[in-house]
Structure formats: C-alpha cells, structure tokens
Design brief:
Oligomer: heterotrimer
Largest sheet of chain A: 5 strands, mixed
Number of helices of chain C: 7
Number of strands of chain A: 18
Strand order of the largest sheet of chain A: 2-1-5-3-4
CATH class of one domain in chain A: Alpha Beta
CATH architecture of the largest domain in chain C: 3-Layer(aba) Sandwich
CATH topology of one domain in chain A: Alpha-Beta Plaits
Strand content of chain A: 5-15%
CATH topology of the largest domain in chain C: Glutaredoxin
Largest sheet of chain C: 4 strands, mixed
Helix content of chain A: 25-40%
Structural class of chain C: alpha+beta
CATH architecture of one domain in chain A: 2-Layer Sandwich
Shape of chain C: elongated
CATH superfamily of the largest domain in chain C: Glutaredoxin
Strand order of the largest sheet of chain C: 2-1-3-4
Number of helices of chain A: 18
C-alpha cells in the first residue's frame, strides 16, 4: 500500500492508484474534464492539476500515480489560479452561447465555469477567428466544433470502446481539432452513429440530432394519430434525467407521462422484441437444419443478431463479407414501425398515412436506422421520428409534468403486451437469453433447465461471453438436433464485436449463434441514454432490467398473447411470406474508409 | 560565481580514431562506463541538462531484455544548428557514442531520430553508418543503429513525443511518470540523448572524466557547441568552454551594438544589455542547448517576441489547454497591446497567464513558452507597447 | 492528382505493416509525390489496417506530410526570427514575382508550391529555404532567382 497526504489527511491506496482516485477516497473532489471512467488516461485538459510538495510544476492528478510520502494540496492559491486560467482558456476557444445550447445545464464545462470563471473574463475571445465547422450530416447527431474543448474523450471512445476511429485528432497547435477523415461529413465516413461519443462529450460539441419539435408538431396536429413505442432499456434509465438514482425502474410513470404528453397510443417495443424472438429463433433453427441436416453449404453460420443498428453499420463497413450471416430480422423498432402502419392501422381502422410513428430509444443509431431506405415496408416511413431517452426527459420537463408523483399506467393495446424475455433485450446477453428460452422449448418441449429461467452464463459485463447448451430430448420435429451442442457467444461494445469478428474470420470460432450489441453493456449503455455513463451506472441499469424481467408474469416470448394473436390474425407463422415482407430486411455493403 | 572566460575548445570535432575509443570503451564494464560519465558531470546537451550518467544508470538498472538508445537529432529549437553540423562532420562519433551508451544501459538497438528538415543528409549518413556497422562488427560487438525521420514538428524534440512519432503516431508528449528510463520507446526502458551529448560521452571515454572536468564550472562541466546567429559578424558553430558571461560572449561575437541575446532559442531566455555582465551561460545562469541569437539596437523586440509566439502557436502539439490556448492568447494579446486595442496593463495579465503555462502545461514546450515571453516583456516592455 | 498505384503496397512491403511503419510509408509517398491524396491515405489505412481518420490525423500533425495539393517542387521559406531579420520578406517577394503565386499557393502547371515554414536550422546562413529536401542558404533576390530558374529548366 502507498501512503500519502492529501490536504494534510492521510490516505493509503494500492500501488498504481492515481492521485485523483486517492483524493476521491478522502471525499476530496478534484474537478476533471478529459478524464472519464471508461477511457484511458489523457491528462490533457489540465483542469485537475494539484500541488505536490517539492515539485517544480503542478501535476495532473488524473495522470499521476500516488507515491509513498507524497504530499498533495488540492486547493492552494496556485492551484486555484491555474484552474481559473485553464477554464478561461477553454472558454476562450468555446462558443459560449449557453442559453441557446442543447446542453445548457447539462455541460461539464459550464459547471466548471460556474465554479471558477464567473464574472468578467480577461482573456480574448478566439472563437470568431476559428472558422469552426458544424456538421449536421448525420441523422443521429450534430458535431459542432465551436463547442469542442479538445478533451479527446470522443476520439478515445471511438477508438478504445468501439474500435471504429471514425474521428481522430488532426493538425497541431492552434489548428488542432477533432476530425473525420479529411473533414468529410460524418454521414460519409465509417461512423456507426452509435453515439458513445455523444454520451461522453463534456460539452455541446457532440449532441444527438433532436426531433422533439417535430414530435410536438405531430402531437398537436389533429389530423395525425401518433403512436409511440418505448425500448426496453429506456424504462430503467429515464429516471436518471428526472431526478432518480441510476437503476430505478420508472416504467409505469413513463407510460403515464407519454399519455399526458398527448400520444394517441402508448405501445411497447417489447412487444416487437418478443416477435423478434419468434422470427429470429425460427430463422436460427431453419439455418441449423439446412446446414446440419440438409448439408446446404450456402447457409451461413454462425448467425449474428441484427437488433443493434450501430453493430449493423459496423459490419456493413468492416466485415461486409459476413452480411449473409446477419439475421435478416429487422430490429424490434423497425418491426414495430412496419406493423404500426399495417396491422395496427387495420385493427384500429386508421389511415396509415395519418399515423405518425415515434419511438423512444436508448440509442442514436436508431435515428439512422429509421432513415434507411429499406425501412419503408408499410409503404410509408415505418418509424417517423426516433427520440432518445434524453429527449423524452426533455419533453417531460417541457410539459411541466411532476414525474415523481405521476400514477403508474399500463401500456395500451395492441402491441403493448410483452414478456420478461423482451425486456432483457436491453442488456448484453438478453437477446441470447430470450432466444434460448424460446428455442429450447420449441425443440424439446420443455423449459430451459436454468433456475427460474435465468440463464446466468450469458449474463454479466464481460466483453465476450460464451456458452454451450446440450440439446437433449427433442420433440419429433427437431429430432435431428438430438444430442447437438449449441454454441453461442455474446459481445457488447464494438471493440468486442471486432474481437469476435476477427476470431470468426480466422476460423477460431465454432459458434452457431452470436449476439452482438454495439454499445457497452448493451442498450442500457446506449448512446442515447442519460449522461453520465460509467460501469457502475450501467451495472445498476442492468440489475434493474433483470428485476423488471423477474417481475413479469410471462417470461418467454412465445407466450406473449398479442404475439400469438398477430400470427393467427395477420402474419400466419414465423418467417412466413408476410413476415418476410414486413419484418425482414437486407443489408448494404459499405466502404471501410 | 565561477567565471571561466571565453575559451575555444576542440573536442566535439576533434579527429579521433573511432575504433580505438570504441575498443577501449568495450573493454570497460557497464558500471565503469557509467561511473566515468557520472564523474565527468556531463549534463544533457539538448537543453534540459539532465545528468547523462544518471540517465544511463537508471536505464541500466531496469530489468528488461529489450532496451533502446535513442539519439535525439530532432534539432528544432530556433537558432540551433549544431547537431546538423555534428552529424555532417563527425557522424562516426555520434554512432560511436550510441554504441557506448548501448553497452552502458544494455541496449542492442539504437535509433537516430533525424528531423525532416535534414533529410538531405541522409544518403551521406547511410554510407557512414554502413562503415560504422562494419567497424563494430569487426570489433565483435553486437549493436545496430537505424535512422527514423521526422516530418516537420518541433514538438517531436520532446523525448516522449519523439517516441510517439517513431511509433507512428502524432508527436504528442506523454504523461510522466513513467519516465523514458523505465518506459520509453515501445514502452521499453530507453535512454534518449542529444547528438552532442553522445559525442561528448565518446570523448569522455577517450580522454577520461578527469580531463573533462577541467573545463567548465561546478554546475556546468566541460565545453559545448554554440550556434551563433543574428546580428553578429561571425555567425556559425563554435565550441566553447562553459562558464562565460554573456558579456564575454558578446565581446567576442557582438557587432558592437548588441542590445539583447536570446540564450536557448525560442524556449530560452532573453538577456538584456544591462544584465550581460552578471549572467553566466550555463546551468547556474541561463541554460542553453546551444542557441545564441544576438540582437542589435536596430531590432524591434516586439517583432522578436511576436515571431517566437507565432512559432509556438503553430508548433504546440495542441493537446493540453495551457499550451494550445495559452500560446494563442499570448500572441493575440501582445498584438492587441501593440495596436493600442488593449491597455498596456494587459501585459501584466499575460505574464500571469505565462506563469500558469509554466506550471500547468503538460510538457517542457508549454512550460517554457513563458521564459521568452517574460524575459522579453520584462526587459523590453516599452518596445512591446509602443 | 497522381495515381498511387502500387507505391503504397511497395512501401508497406519494405517498411512492414505495423503502426510504426506509418511515418516511413507516408514519408515515402511524399518523397515521390510531395503530398498525400485521399486515395493514398486510404490505401495506407487499408495496408496497415487502421482507420483513414487516424492516418489523416497523424499526417496532418506533421508539416511536411501535406494533405493539400502540392507542386513538384515545394519551396519552404524559413520564417523564424533570424531569417526574418535577414531578408525573408525580400525572398518571398522575389519568389512570388517569379512564380506568379502567393504564399500558400501552387503554380497552375503544378511545378512549384510556395509556403513558409518554421526554423530549418540554417540561422547562421540566413535567409534560407528548402526546395523539397535541399537547403539553399545566404540567399539574396538574385541568388534565389537563379536557383528557381535552374529548377524551371529541369
């Protein structure tokens, strides 16, 4: 253990602990900007400088390991003056139109300015000379360089967590900036629109592209019937933007809030998640049969899940030769959208051209997904507007709702029923678990042999997880699978997706089915979720998702009564012609550079 | 304060039998080589002045099968051109110094990082390197040197930025600790030494530490090569004993009208005429990597300062706030004052900012921008304002 | 615009495909073509299996790894203090006159680019310029005119 003094208080920490972390142990708060729990140390903003006795200069507490006998002071005049200077320097390069900024009151730079740099600024405003660029090309987010403070969190996120590096630090000195390849629009580079950078940007330099006004317009339009769907991961995170601690489930209040906002019908993406399991599970079993029994060489295994639009764009760019391995199933959002303007319209006797379909997603990539030209199976844009969890919180605030004191409400019908298997789509391993719960039962006629249906090997935050399931006692139709070992793997965060894809490519993976989610932790860690994010917060959201699952009466997708009904009334059976028309899609090979 | 006066020395460019010195060094143990260099009191000749023997000792102490000796030939400090001259004239001694350093620290691999501006030297250096490698093979010593080129980035002279550059990345300085002796190039223990330092070390092997300590002062042992430019009738390269005053230097090199000497380049200090006599050139006074620029009374010190600040604004790597934005603020700030758009007292605010840069910037570049700024504004305030 | 052809592959074969080879490869392209086209950077990214943005980010850090179009002869005029004191402006003026371009521009025939650069290490022989790799020192307007005329003959 290392013993040191911080502000004259003794503290012991393990070797390798930073001064910042040691101070935290003493509940001494040192401000930071470039530092982020999920990312490697940068030490470049210098906001966290502290004074070390005997040192010539101040030291960056985030980047300096504690050493024995160190004496640190975090609040000397020297430190305060330096910090004030540093914050003012950052502000001098930053377009401080705070009252007009989307991140107003949710901005780390603004908070620091409140503490250190209020009142008159001595330094010169450099913004006007900079000819900053604002990139609005992506349907998912806006990159406004005039708000950028070059902390490089976005660059580290894109590289370390997502292994995409669509953005990098370019040029040097006064011209240094965060840039795509040769300043191309973000819509024209390898960006997956995952929004993890948006989630970690301390200012308004990277924000989701918001469609709040368009949604309000639709709600207020008497000619329009506005349906809204909510993704599984939203209900365990929305509370964070409305004063709750991470990990609080606010499903009922959220549903009520959506009704109060004026949506004509409040429905659940969980319904179409259950439907996805029927379609995707069947697809997997069919592929397995064709490959294993019929010996059809054209069948691509392993099959990859296709729910995560960040992952989809990633594989389209990086591993297009594996597009045939992707499940052809649309994501639950898009299945819902296609059904909203067909099945739902028919059942409710509505003109589909008058339906506005809105989704609330933990995701920024879903905005891109909804815009894809393939997503018009209903003859209209299947999902008109995608809002993030954060945007919904903004709408709730705009409407003046007292969220905490709202009564809990239930989803409308139809396309509002769901099972526990659907809600776990929100975490890494969840789609796999839901699929196994159903597929195993279809094949064997028995419940999957895990206590309380909790398939623990596929759960948790390990970057890559794998499991093997021996299939025994098959029903007649699936006898050919008797004794087979189903090998599955799960990855979350594109850096782990990349790892698995390399294994697959090198022939080092003998999996049948692989679940991949683009974001760390799955959708609970999505780019559209409340800010901040870190492992602790994601674990709390994950716990809440599993609690939500256990709390449901039905836990298996094939038991969802509305799912049973839609096959009876409309789709016929999984992978039917109609299903293929509405619920399945194809993918596009994209350039990797 | 010791004052040795101005004495010309011929050590760096002295013609020697390379092989003889190398064979002598290779007969010594690692400890003996390091002891000799420690005893000589040699401090790094790139400007920072870290004791070379200590650097070698620390690197030698690391238990790693892979270590590197890196020769810093990214001579970018405005006003410095001695390393180019040394490489041009006595590259065999640079290579020899690297081999000796390699023996001392236990490195089999040496890399010379040569600034892109000197690429024209490369064909000649390659020929000379071939001859050197042949020679060392004949001696029966296993050591290989490779050249890596810079591509126009002053900051790559900073040791950790230089490593990043060799590793194929942007030349952005790293956080320290860890220091290069523990984790340097490719995260291996690395001793990085300036061109001249390596040659000096070789000459210490030849003549012995005792001989070396006869020259210079307690804090600044030996002699070093100075790059003299600006308003002087005799610009060029001069090897001088350390420990002279700026006055003595000006007496030799000035044009009779010298009003200031910039010692140590853009990141160094400006010494005004009234302080010539009291200022020793060396680590006890104004340290320098060799850059000596003389300015006579026809020169505007505002222009000098503006030129330096423009240089730093472009050459900062840009990663840390104090340096990236601080340089821009100092530059725009003096422009405003000069134009009368800001009060002269604004210079006081800028001096405070320069002080913050000195203690809060990530690396030596940002920390030293304040040197030139404060010494020029401090000594020539009227010229900045009017 | 030039075609990179096999150059990137050849350079990658020569220097290897690890990240540390990035600089030598980019330098090799620039030596031949004086600047990096988007196509060249993409090819490098492909060979080294890194993102194009990273190649661009690294290249743009280095003044000599130009990502904007440059002529066959890149004239870099040192603008740091000694050269500035010793007549840099006259040299620029002369060059602008001969080449009929301004600093930062390239001649329409893509032969010459004129740019300013920071200290190139010839302060004792100021003013100095680099034409591609070659330094020319102690310049006067006459001297620099002669030099450029020689290049025009090449």
């Amino acid at each position: 253990m290392i013993n040191l003094l911080i502000n004259n208080q003794k503290v012991s920490v393990p070797e390798g602990t930073t001064v910042l972390a040691a101070a935290k142990k003493l509940k001494i708060n040192i401000p930071t900007l470039c530092n982020h729990d999920d990312l490697c140390v940068a030490g470049n903003c210098r906001v966290c400088v502290v004074e070390q006795k005997g040192a010539r200069t101040l030291i960056a507490s985030c980047a300096t390991p504690a050493t024995d006998g160190m004496e640190i002071n975090t609040n000397t005049l020297k430190v305060r003056n330096a910090r004030k200077h540093i914050v003012e320097l950052l502000l001098s390069e930053h377009r401080s139109d705070c009252t007009k900024c989307y991140k107003n009151q949710n901005c780390e730079l603004q908070s620091l300015a409140n503490e250190f740099a209020f009142g008159d600024h001595i330094l010169l405003d450099l913004v006007e000379d900079k000819k900053y660029n604002i990139d609005r090309s992506s349907p998912s987010f806006v990159k406004d360089d005039s708000k950028c403070i070059r902390c490089q969190r976005c660059v580290r996120t894109c590289s370390e967590l997502q292994s995409v590096s669509a953005i990098a630090v370019a040029y040097k000195g006064a011209h240094q900036k965060i840039s795509s390849f040769h300043d191309k629009p973000m819509s024209h580079v390898v960006c997956t629109n995952c929004g993890q950078c948006v989630n970690r940007c301390p200012t308004g330099a990277l924000v989701e592209k918001t469609y709040i006004d368009q949604v309000w317009d639709a709600i207020y339009d008497p000619d329009k019937h506005v349906v809204v769907q909510t993704a599984p991961a939203v209900r365990v995170a929305l509370g964070e933007d409305l004063g709750y601690d991470p990990g609080e489930r606010v499903t009922g209040k959220m549903v009520n809030a959506l009704k109060q906002l004026g949506f004509n019908s409040v429905l659940d993406t969980d319904f179409s998640a259950d439907l996805t399991i029927m379609e995707e599970g069947t697809e997997l079993l069919v592929r397995l049969k064709k490959a294993l029994v019929d010996g059809d060489k054209a069948i691509s295994l392993p099959m990859f899940t296709s729910c995560s639009p960040g992952w989809i764009k990633f594989i389209e760019h990086k591993y297009p030769e594996y597009l045939p391995n992707l499940s052809t199933c649309k994501s639950p959002q898009q299945m819902f959208g296609a059904l909203a303007k067909t099945y739902y319209a028919k059942k409710r006797n509505l003109d589909p051209s008058k339906i506005v379909s809105v989704s609330i997603m933990p995701c920024t990539a879903k905005k891109f997904e909804a815009d894809r030209p393939e997503m018009r199976a209903s003859g209209f844009k299947d999902v008109d507007y995608v809002l993030t969890t954060r945007e919904l919180a903004v709408m709730i605030k705009q409407a003046g709702l007292d969220f905490r004191n709202l009564e809990e409400a239930k989803y409308d019908s139809f396309m509002g029923d769901s099972t526990g298997a659907a809600v776990i789509f929100g975490v890494t391993g969840g789609v796999m678990e839901a699929a196994l719960r159903t597929a195993y039962e279809i094949v064997t006629g028995r419940e999957i042999p895990f206590g309380n249906l909790n398939i623990t090997p596929v759960r948790g935050m390990d970057g890559v997880k794998e499991a093997t399931l021996k299939i025994e006692g098959c029903v007649d139709a699936w006898k050919f699978l008797e004794g087979a070992e189903l090998k599955v793997a799960i990855a979350h965060g594109l850096v782990n997706a990349n790892k698995i894809m390399k294994m697959v490519k090198d022939g080092k993976a003998s999996y049948h089915f692989i679940e991949i989610m683009g974001c760390p932790g799955g959708c609970i860690g999505g780019g559209g979720q409340p800010i901040p994010t870190n492992m602790e917060i994601r674990k709390k959201r994950m716990k809440a998702i599993y609690a939500e699952d256990e709390h449901m009466v039905l836990r298996k997708s094939h038991e969802n009564p509305e799912v049973i009904a839609i096959y009876k009334e409309f789709l016929d059976q999984p992978n039917s012609h109609k299903s293929h028309e509405l619920l399945h899609t194809h993918y596009v090979e994209r350039d990797n550079y | 304060m010791e004052n040795k006066g101005l004495n010309k020395v011929d050590l760096i460019f002295e013609k020697i039998d390379n092989r003889e010195v190398l064979e002598k060094a290779f007969r010594m143990s690692r400890e003996e080589i390091i002891r000799e260099v420690l005893d000589s009191g040699l401090k790094g000749r790139g400007g920072a002045g870290f004791p070379t023997g200590m650097k070698w000792k620390f690197t030698a102490a690391e238990k790693s099968p892979d270590k590197y000796i890196v020769c810093n030939a990214d001579e970018g400090e405005p006003g410095t051109f001695k390393d180019r001259e040394i490489l041009d004239r006595v590259s065999n001694k640079v290579h020899g110094g690297m081999a000796i350093a390699g023996k001392a620290i236990g490195a089999k691999k040496g890399i010379v990082y040569l600034r892109g501006e000197y690429r024209y030297l490369l064909p000649k250096l390659m020929t000379e390197l071939d001859a050197f490698q042949k020679q060392i093979k004949e001696i029966g010593y296993d050591f290989n040197i490779e050249y890596r080129m810079g591509s126009g980035a002053y900051i790559c002279g900073e040791e950790s930025a230089l490593f990043e550059s060799i590793e194929g990345k942007r030349g952005e300085p790293r956080n320290k600790p860890p220091y290069p002796t523990v984790s340097g190039l490719f995260d291996k223990p690395t001793s990085i030494n300036n061109v001249e330092t390596l040659v000096t070390a070789m000459m210490i092997m030849k003549h012995g530490a005792k001989n070396f300590t006869q020259y210079g002062t307690k804090d600044s042992r030996g002699s070093k090569v100075f790059s003299v430019s600006g308003d002087t009738p005799t610009p060029g390269i001069f090897e001088l004993e350390l420990g002279m005053t700026v006055q003595q230097f000006v007496n030799e090199f000035g044009d009779g009208d010298t009003k200031a000497v910039q010692v140590g380049g853009a990141s160094g200090f400006c010494v005004p005429r009234k302080k010539f006599a009291e200022t020793i050139i060396g680590f006890e006074g104004v340290p320098t990597g060799g850059s000596m620029k003389l300015f006579n009374s026809s020169r505007s010190m505002y222009n000098v300062l503006h030129n330096y600040l423009d240089f730093f604004t472009e050459e900062s790597c840009g990663q840390c706030t104090p340096c990236r934005v601080g340089c821009q603020q100092l530059l725009k700030g003096v422009e405003k004052v000069k134009k009368g758009e800001a009060k002269s007292t604004y210079l006081n605010e800028l001096i405070k900012l320069a002080d913050t840069m000195k203690i809060a910037a990530k690396c030596g570049l940002g920390q030293s921008v304040g040197n030139a700024f404060k010494s020029i504004v401090g000594n020539f305030r009227e010229e900045i304002i009017y | 615009m030039y075609q990179v052809g096999n150059l990137v592959k050849e350079l990658s074969d020569k220097h290897g495909r690890a990240r540390e080879s990035l600089m030598p490869i980019l330098q090799g392209i620039v030596q031949k073509h004086n600047y990096l086209t988007d196509e060249a950077m993409v090819e490098v990214a492909r060979e080294l299996d890194i993102s194009a943005a990273e190649v661009y980010g690294t290249a743009s850090f280095y003044t000599f790894l130009d990502t904007q179009v440059k002529g066959k002869y890149v004239i870099r005029v040192c603008k740091t203090i000694t050269c500035s004191m010793k007549g840099k402006s006259d040299i620029i003026e002369t060059l602008e006159e001969i080449l009929k371009i301004k600093v930062g521009e390239t001649t329409p025939d893509s032969q010459f680019s004129l740019i300013e650069t920071n200290c190139i290490g010839w302060c004792h022989k100021a003013p100095a310029i680099l034409i591609n790799e070659m330094p020319y020192t102690e310049l006067t307007s006459e001297k620099v005119s002669e030099i450029i005329k020689d290049y025009m003959q090449k």
